[in-house]
Design a protein that fits this description.
Length: 60
């Protein structure tokens, strides 16, 4: 098969990392990360790629 995505997956090994953490701790960490992203310009970055009249009802 010559599909580039298949060849990438075939060529490289992969692995999973399992993190066991309490939900409250995870939620706090995610909240902090989102706040940090907003402070460093996430909203402005999204505004630059947002197309007002685009059809966002379908995925890729």
């Amino acid at each position: 098969m010559e599909d580039p995505m298949f060849m990438f997956k075939y060529k490289y090994d992969s692995f999973f990392i399992w993190i066991d953490v309490e939900q409250a701790i995870l939620n706090r960490r995610v909240d902090m990360r989102v706040d940090q992203m907003v402070k460093t310009g996430l909203v402005d970055e999204v505004r630059q790629i947002f197309i007002p009249d685009a059809d966002y009802t379908k995925g890729i």
